[in-house]
Amino acid sequence: MNLIVLLVCLILALILLGLLALGSRVLFEILRQQGRLLLRIEEIEARLTDPGSSQAPLLESVNNRAAFLPSPPTLPEASGTASPVSALPSNVEAAETVPVREKIELTIGMATYNDFDGIYFTLQALQLYQDLANTEILVIDNYGCQETRKLVEDWLHGRYILATDVVGTAAPRDLVFREARGNAVLCCDCHVLFAPGAIARLKQFYREHPDCGDLLQGPLLYDDGKQVATHFDPSWRDQMWGTWGSDPRGQSPDAEPFEIPMQGLGVFSCLKRVWPGFHPEFRGFGGEEGYIHEKFRQAGSRCLCLPWFRWMHRFGRPSGVLYSVTVEDKLRNYLIGHAELGLDLAPILEHFSAYLSQEQIRTVAEQAKIAAPAG
User: Most exposed among 36, 123, 250, 269, judged by the fewest C-beta atoms under 10 Å?
Assistant: First the structure.
């Protein structure tokens, strides 16, 4: 029995020695082949780097191309929801040598006050149906809504600015123009829809008229999508200067632009550099229509209706108006604006006497006089 065990152990030892010998031979062949490959590589490099070799330019070309290969993009960290767009390489902005403002043709900006539903559908309609190439989206939040901020920044990759120091319609609209990075600015209400192709045609208009100093507007489409209001007539009604009017020249979207006295400010546009600004003392709602139009005219420019620049405005508010609208604010703004422009104040006082007592009018007039003295 012991002899059998000894023989088995001897056979196993011989097998093991054979395997070791075979492994050493294989290892030797591998090292030998690697050595040959290394020598071949050194030979090739020597030829390529030899100035007299015809292959030297090839190596230089390969090295130059390798230097410009893009770095792998930085992948976004995993989160509960997928990113709406692919992540850009981290070095994209660093590669820009031209200021961002020169890259943007148009800024579409809007002020909002506690109106998430309105701004949601306005922005999504722009994204779905309009040409937003080289276009900046800018939202000025006069209230402070986190859902609005998330929509603008996280989903639409626009700019969101919280500005609650001065509540009203004029101050945030003015901030749209001051903060815009585009060559031209389109300011609209946050509950507006545009006719198909309107944004593309507006950008084309500015390309064809790069020095346009005019205030550009378009016809309001009524809710039936057919009737239009091309302008405001300069008359007083319901605590407002301006009543909707319709010029036959604006019925066809293919008609030529024409001058108008004024128009509702649901949509208006001009080059950023020619914006004259609203009076900094405007507060609350009212006083901007007519005022800004006259300001453009006094600067030597025109107020134009572009018949194709059509827009629809949500007037209905079943839940009520969520911002402050007072007669006193309207009167004060009209007095400040008219005094700044040197316009007659008597029609304002006469109209508002139907809504406020003489004592109330006198108090507001004194406040307006302090804010914007005549002359």
Answer: 36
